[in-house]
Amino acid sequence: MHPLFDPLFLARLQFAFTVSFHIIFPAFTIGLASYLAVLEGLWLWTKRDVFIRIFRFWQTIFAVTFGMGVVSGIVMSYQFGTNWSVFSDRAGPVIGPLMGYEVLSAFFLEAGFLGVMLFGMNRVGRGLHFFATLMVAFGTFLSAFWILAVNSWMQTPAGHVLAPNGQFVPEDWLAVIFNPSFPYRLVHMVLAAYLTTAFVVGAVGAWHLLKDRGNVAARMMFSMAMWMAAIVAPVQIFAGDLHGLNTLKHQPAKVAAMEGHYDSHNGAPLILFGLPDNDAAETKYAVEIPKLGSLILTHDWDGHVAGLKAFPREDWPNAAVVFWSFRIMVGLGLLMALMGGISLLWRWRGRLYEAPWLHRAAVMMGPSGFIAVLAGWVTTEVGRQPWTIYGLLRTADSVSPIGLPGVATSLLAFVVVYFLVFGAGIFYLFRLMGRPPGIEVAEPPLPEAPLRSTSGAPVVDLLAEEKP
After folding, report:
1. How many C-beta atoms lie closer than 10 Å to residue 46's C-beta?
2. What is the tens place of the pLDDT at every residue in 37-83?
3. 161: which strand partners?
4. 8 Å CB contact between 262 and 309
């Protein structure tokens, strides 16, 4: 049967489409909320007007992105009941409470303080407003905590027992939440969100620097983003390596697909490029570096790396998809680290704001975080197949008894509505980002006297390096 006529494939495609559309918004808001908290904290600490100008610039963008993230996420909850009712029934005792905790803690925290953050600048004290901004940032992190606890349990299930009716019932909630892969996934995802935000902020700052090299707010945005890239990208590479070692321990078939290995090796090569073929059980046209694969995965030149042939064929993931999505993610991560390193060199030379080629490169790297996040999730989710709960519940046994017309019609409706609604929202975000930052008339954001110099003139709060 052709996949387009298979209800299971279309149900998977529908969930993949909606979650891919959804994840780009929280991947941005997690980092952007923390960035807003840093900006407001720096403004309160230094009293420098440039920080509150940038805060206001990104505040509206955060509100729009947050709203689109909420709307796009609601739809996925319904799909658990419509397309994946068997999974919902069997895993509900574990998944249901964890997702409920996310709503009761993270979402309520975000929604409760979001209004104060957006509209309370001139209505509450500075301390309370900063506290609201911190709570919104903490809420976005807490949301990631619970959602990744759910996903990690599906990847490395622990802390449950199998009831006579076939349901997975929690026995130890701490073991459920802090399952073997959870700490690695949480760190990896949060760092990815910070890098995603950094490269968006850097791209917007660079875009405006190309138009006006003297725009102080654009200079500050670009500078802060490049600091983030220089510091966090290498840390993310290290965290990714630890995550990979954890995956090798608990999901070796996924790692075999990621590496393109069908045969087991002592001293496995690193396959840079190739065309994995599950039917032929080989990676064709492979470009290899001898023994480097074992060194990376086992930290031993002659370490043993299992290939897909060590596992039942019916348990193989789609190696071609996993192989290439993993390389897209890693390749973009290396480019991010390179970008951060180059920015450090040009900062040391005092020419960070006088390198149009660097600014153009930053603009081109703007969407890199989103692409890397999507590629990482494809690696994670396709690599888990053919399981919804790894090693315990197959995807084919999780789907609802739905017919082809129903799932095909709903998939088509989702595609049309998502591209229309969220396409318009993303277009509006580009319009907001296209406004030159910091062009509004300087005024105190609170009904307090502005800082003034001894001559009585308003303080010009710019660093020497920010002056054109």
Report:
1. 12
2. 999 999 999 988 899 999 999 999 999 998 888 888 888 878 888 88
3. 169
4. yes
- Count Cβ atoms within 10 A of the Cβ of residue 394 and give its class: 0-12 exposed, 13-18 middle, 19 or more buried: middle
- The encoded tokens of residue 345 equal 């060199």
pLDDT at position 443 over 50: no
| Tokens representing residue 301 in the block | 């030149």
Tell me the pTM.
Answer: 0.88
Q: Is the peptide bond before 26 cis (omega within 30 degrees of 0)?
A: no
Ranking 48-52, 174-178, 198-202 by mean pLDDT, the lowest is 48-52
Distance CA 230, CA 302 (A): 33
Dihedral sign, Cα of residue 337, residue 240, residue 426, residue 37: negative
CA 116 → CA 61, 90, 124, distances in Å? Answer: 16, 40, 8
Mean confidence (pLDDT) of the chain = 87
How far, in Å, CA of 152 to CA of 95, rounded?
A: 11
Cα 454–Cα 457–Cα 462 angle in degrees, nearest 5: 95
The pLDDT of residue 453: 36
Residue carrying the six token digits 């229309």: 420
> Are the C-beta atoms of residues 126 and 44 closer than 8 Å to each other?
yes
SS3 letters across the chain: CCHHHCHHHHHHHHHHHHHHHHHHHHHHHHHHHHHHHHHHHHHHHHCCHHHHHHHHHHHHHHHHHHHHHHHHHHHHHHHHHHCCHHHHHHHHHHHHHHHHHHHHHHHHHHHHHHHHHHHCCCCCCHHHHHHHHHHHHHHHHHHHHHHHHHHHHHHCCCCEEECCCCCEEECCHHHHHCCCCHHHHHHHHHHHHHHHHHHHHHHHHHHHHHHCCCCHHHHHHHHHHHHHHHHHHHHHHHHHHHHHHHHHHHCHHHHHHHHCCCCCEECCCEEEEEEEECCCCEEEEEEEECCHHHHHHHCCCCCEECCHHHCCHHHCCCHHHHHHHHHHHHHHHHHHHHHHHHHHHHHHCCCCCCCHHHHHHHHHCCCHHHHHHHHHHHHHHHHHCCEEECCCEEHHHCCCCCCHHHHHHHHHHHHHHHHHHHHHHHHHHHHHHHCCCCCCCCCCCCCCCCCECCCCCECCCCCHHHCC
For helices 85-101 and 126-155, give the axis angle rounded to 10 degrees: 150
Backbone angles phi, psi at 311, to 5 degrees: -120, 155
pLDDT confidence of 439, banded at 50, 70, 90? low
